[in-house]
Write a structure and sequence with these properties.
single chain, alpha+beta, 5-stranded mixed beta barrel, 6 helices, about 25% helix, globular
């Protein structure tokens, strides 16, 4: 299981990014008592979560300060004052931008179209459209980081649900226990099984789900030798089912 103590320091190059997600640290605006407070957190997400977030920029019911995601860089537009990027993952796409500094003291990493990038930034909304203000972005050096990110998103979703459940009245305890029992059917899987399940689940909106060869393209190379066994296990346990052919899957 992913260790929650590592969320605030996923990479040495993010040392200036405040965080720990869904934690209790807060900053008062203006420093006066009774003023509005904002949770200081660092939330790993899929792009679909950003596009579907609430108008007050909450994800899974929690206020968001910094989000992080991994996607494929599809387009780069360079301007005199800012650079704009189109980034997509298997769930959706979003526009991200960063302002250019007039006096750069460090050299930014080289970014190429159709390669994976890791993004840290602030979620913004303008004219009912979500976009990301980039704090840091760099090319992915190891696809294992993508696997780790998907597991982090899963953990964050379960963590958010757990925190939400703690706010329920004690009269709802039995109902909450039933929900957590259902969730544990997923969280009880191994890391690899959970990853495969979540990748398949992300394609439930399509007519036939996800095809086996596409699923294999979205996992790290070290999982390819076991992916078929994982699919067979998830099918036999009733977590997923076949659709158009024996090589098309959706989650139950």
């Amino acid at each position: 299981m992913v260790n929650s103590t590592n969320w605030s320091n996923l990479n040495d190059s993010t040392e200036n990014v405040p965080g720990g997600f869904f934690n209790d640290s807060r900053n008062s605006v203006g420093g006066s008592k009774g003023t509005v407070q904002r949770v200081q957190n660092n939330v790993p997400v899929m792009i679909k979560h950003l596009n579907n977030s609430y108008s007050d920029l909450k994800i899974w019911g929690s206020s968001v300060n910094i989000i992080t995601f991994i996607g494929i860089l599809r387009h780069i537009e360079e301007g005199t004052t800012k650079e704009t990027y189109e980034i997509e993952d298997e769930t959706s796409s979003i526009t991200a931008f960063r302002w250019l500094e007039s006096e750069k003291t460090t050299v930014a990493p080289t970014l190429k179209v159709n390669t994976y990038v890791r993004v840290y930034g602030h979620l913004r909304e303008q004219n009912n459209k979500k976009h990301v203000l980039i704090l840091k972005m760099w090319p992915l050096a190891d696809l294992n980081e993508l696997t780790n990110h998907l597991l982090e998103v899963t953990y964050a979703m379960l963590k958010s649900e757990k925190l939400s459940n703690t706010n329920h009245d004690t009269s709802n305890a039995m109902q909450t226990d039933d929900v957590m029992t259902t969730d544990n059917l997923i969280s009880g899987l191994t890391k690899e099984q959970t990853l495969v399940f979540k990748i398949i689940q992300a394609e439930n909106g399509s007519e036939n789900g996800i095809e086996r060869h596409i699923l294999k393209s979205r996992v790290s190379k070290n999982m390819l030798s076991t992916i078929d066994d994982i699919i067979d296990f998830l099918t036999s346990e009733g977590h997923i089912y076949t659709t158009l052919t024996d090589d098309h899957f959706k989650t139950t």
